[in-house]
UniProtKB/TrEMBL annotation:
InterPro entries: AAA+_ATPase, ABC_transporter-like_ATP-bd, ABC_transporter-like_CS, ABC_transpr_LolD-like, Cell_div_FtsE, P-loop_NTPase. It comes from Paraferrimonas sedimenticola. Belongs to the ABC transporter superfamily. GO terms for biological process: cell division. This is Cell division ATP-binding protein FtsE. PANTHER family: CELL DIVISION ATP-BINDING PROTEIN FTSE, IMPORT ATP-BINDING PROTEIN. GO terms for cellular component: plasma membrane. Part of the ABC transporter FtsEX involved in cellular division. Important for assembly or stability of the septal ring. It is found in: Cell inner membrane; Cell membrane. Gene3D superfamilies: P-loop containing nucleotide triphosphate hydrolases. It comes from the Bacteria.
């Protein structure tokens, strides 16, 4: 599904974020991505979602080299990726319903289908009944869950989550991880970047570890 071959990223200004990173996330696999603050986790997710481009090496999704994807094609590639950002990136002047509906509107679903799916996604993240609220009226953890509902509402084949449980208490964190497991069981590939070693320890998934931009462990089966 996702393959990195000797990928490096240097930001304009010379900040080296990734060096010679190689790994393969298989179709239907769920894995964690960990490492200290600044190790390059967000950068790695941004290269997959083509928010940033690699400085060297090859990033491919389903066998397609993303370097060949033109800026005009990027939105089509992103339709298949549910991205959960650290800072939610919600539209604060729109309702919770409108925020979650966004990926479905872009795909041209009918209003009836949109309402059904939005309601289902909000149920899944425990925000039933908050449709009409404005995100500004919600707590940080609730806003995070709106971002999660938006990322999963169109059941994308790939889910990328950057610290998805950062603002959530342990119970809610496990519920959200359970939700990712459900989506994984239904066929989505899932990559979760997190500092939360406790969370990783509780769940038996492969862990990709970054240290100062280099991949330390990317074994196929690490239990
Ligand atoms: N847009 C940018 N411009 C310049 N440098 C950047 C940019 N984004 C990230 N960096 C740098 O790249 C390195 C890796 O950052 P990245 O955000 O990928 O780390 P991270 O592992 O996700 O950290 P955190 O856990 O704190 O979110 C850091 O040294 C950071 O300062």
């Amino acid at each position: 599904m996702i393959r990195f071959e000797q990928v490096s990223k240097v930001y304009p200004g010379g900040q080296k974020a990734l060096s010679g990173v190689s790994f393969h996330l298989k179709k239907g696999e769920m894995a964690f991505l960990t490492g200290h603050s600044g190790a390059g986790k967000s950068t790695l997710l941004k290269l997959i979602s083509v928010i940033e481009r690699a400085s060297a090496g090859r990033v491919s999704i389903n066998g397609h080299d993303v370097a060949q994807v033109s800026p005009a094609q990027v939105p089509y590639l992103r339709r298949d990726i549910g991205i959960i950002f650290q800072n939610h990136q919600l539209l604060m002047d729109r309702s919770v319903h409108d925020n979650v509906a966004l990926p479905l509107l872009i795909e041209g679903f009918s209003q009836k289908e949109i309402n059904k799916r939005v309601s289902g996604a909000l149920d899944m993240v425990g925000l039933h009944g908050k449709e009409k609220h404005n995100p500004i009226m919600l707590s940080g953890g609730e806003q995070q869950r709106v971002g999660i509902a938006r990322a999963i509402v169109n059941k994308p084949p790939l889910i990328l989550a950057d610290e998805p449980t950062g603002n959530l208490d342990p119970k809610l964190s496990m519920d959200i991880m359970g939700l990712f497991e459900l989506l994984n069981d239904a066929g989505s590939s899932v990559l979760v970047a997190t500092h939360d070693l406790g969370l990783i320890a509780r769940m038996k998934y492969r862990t990709l570890t970054l240290k100062q931009g280099q991949m330390l462990f990317a074994e196929e089966h690490q239990l």
